[in-house]
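Protein chain data
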Amino acid sequence: MSRRMRPSAAPTVRIPRQRGGRPVIVVLSSELEPTLTARAAAASGRWLWKHRRTWAPTGLAAVLLAVTGLVHLIEPRTAWVLAPLALTPLGVWAWTARRRPATSRTARTWRGLFTAAATAGVGWVPVAIWFGPAVPAVALVWALLTLTAQITWLIARRLTTTATKETR
C-alpha cells in the first residue's frame, strides 16, 4: 500500500480505527485566508450594507427591472391594466397645486420636475412590461431614469443633512 504525500505545511490528525473501517485522516489546512474573489465580494458586501440608504434608488430600480421582466414573461397584457396609473403623478401634482399653491418660482419648478420624473418612472413600468425590459430603448430609458433618481436622491440627502446640521 503506497502512502500519499501530504503538504508539509498542513498538519494531520490521525483518529484511531473505528470498527472494521479505514482510518480517518483529517487534514487541517493552514490556508485560512480567503481568496481574492472572496475578499472582494466580502468588501463589496460590507460597503453596500454600510451605504444601503445611499443606494436605495438603484436597488429599487434593479428590483423593478427584474419584476417587470418576470411579469413580461408571464403576462405582458398586465401593461394595459397598469398604463392608466402612469398619469397618477400628474393628478397628484394638479391636486396639490390647487390645494397648496407654490409660493416661489423655484418651488413650482422643483414640483414640476419631480412630477415629470415620477410620471416617466411610473410610465416606464407598463412600457417595460409590454415590450420587455431588455429591449435596448426601454433599457436605455431605465438606465437614464435610474441615474436621474440616484443623482436626485444624493443631492436631496446632502441638502437635507446640511440643513439639519445647520438648525441644531
About this structure: The radius of gyration is 28 Å.
